[in-house]
DNA sequence: ATTGCCAGTGTCATTTCGACACATTATTAT
DNA sequence: ATAATAATGTGTCGAAATGACACTGGCAAT
């Protein structure tokens, strides 16, 4: 990566920002990629502003690429957050100030409507890199109790609700899991998103009946106990099935 | 209603607008409330701008109230439209000019991100009133082929897709139908939103099994043929059932 | 070799689904 | 009046999906 370009508020639209909830799945947990601010010591969603000639979707791709290094990600806007007080007392401005970047207060002082996007990434492919204002860049478990900037906690909650509702319409498993995965891993992902347990055998039967998985000959080794088979998504059939919506609700 | 207040762009946020797709159900058809511009002779969605101290949701309530006269409507944002060229060559400016309202071009000339809302209203309760720039205010059938302003046709399409996806999570029937309705009316509503036919008997069995309808003693008279019973939603049970999501997909 | 744990596979009763047939009733044509 | 028409109310049946559960098989630690 090259050095960070200095922030020039003239490049960006006033009043419009966007925040990305970047989901990853690791160690059988759903996690969100967060920045940890150097000075205010709070977590924040990777977000940014809209350039004058960009769509929101293009801006989201750009911002997530800056953050994860990944191109062509699965990204979806899910809600605009518009509480008039939401961007009051933004501690990130303090951090920008401390970092030596004279924050353009006529820009940062404005009211911002933020459009929330969620991104689904393969955890192992991401190379998170802290930026000028953040000392760390962490995958934070959803169950972790951390302090967050502004309304970012609420934004994450809404993102998860959206995930849950769209589980049968969006290629969520495909985007969150590595190419090869085991049935227990897929089940845990579903259980995490849905927030409840599923019967192991019924889950397997149902998901296999959709005909969207290819069972590989290979098995996962190394773990204790019986080694599970690997599966991978049959992308063509998966996409086709999603158009109709996977019937039933888990 | 009182006289229209003159438009003062200082009251509003720059760059943010919203457009409302107001759905109504009448004569067994799903319809959208549209304004017909006096001079450019095009249909447009009732839309508006965000005041400095309003949330988007509050603005949507205000705008729909100005348009339909109804309070406390069911309203839901579904997407932000952000194509940089979407508000280029806005013919509504021409109409504002012709109407004698000197349009504030430093305001209207800006790029606008529009947040789409859909509203569900009881057709019979709405009193649509054309405004300064519109000569008519029509309920337009979704199948009608009319010319529309900017990307409003696309916005309507997205609204319907959203409706379809949310049919099992949102109180769509409750909000679109009058208090009393017949089974065939409810079925037609579902068929319209889903875009396909349903078996009359299976539909009845399934919807009754949800236990969200109260069968009334009264029947609908006047129509030809056997008179159907009236039903109404049992609001409490309906809301409860929606929280879980009505199982299955129609 | 034994034990513990997890994965793979199968069974069964119940419920739901999809595709129908038939009876009932209000209007309209004769 | 009477019959024809057409839409509604209700029921049936086999197929498929669902939920609950039991048994077998393999890997590793002891």
Automatic annotation (TrEMBL), chains A, B:
CDD domains: NUDIX_NadM_like. The lineage of its organism: Bacteria, Pseudomonadati, Bacteroidota, Bacteroidia, Marinilabiliales. Gene3D superfamilies: Nucleoside Triphosphate Pyrophosphohydrolase, Winged helix-like DNA-binding domain superfamily/Winged helix DNA-binding domain. This is NUDIX domain-containing protein. Pfam families: NUDIX, WHD_NrtR. Residues 13-162 form the Nudix hydrolase domain. It comes from Draconibacterium orientale.
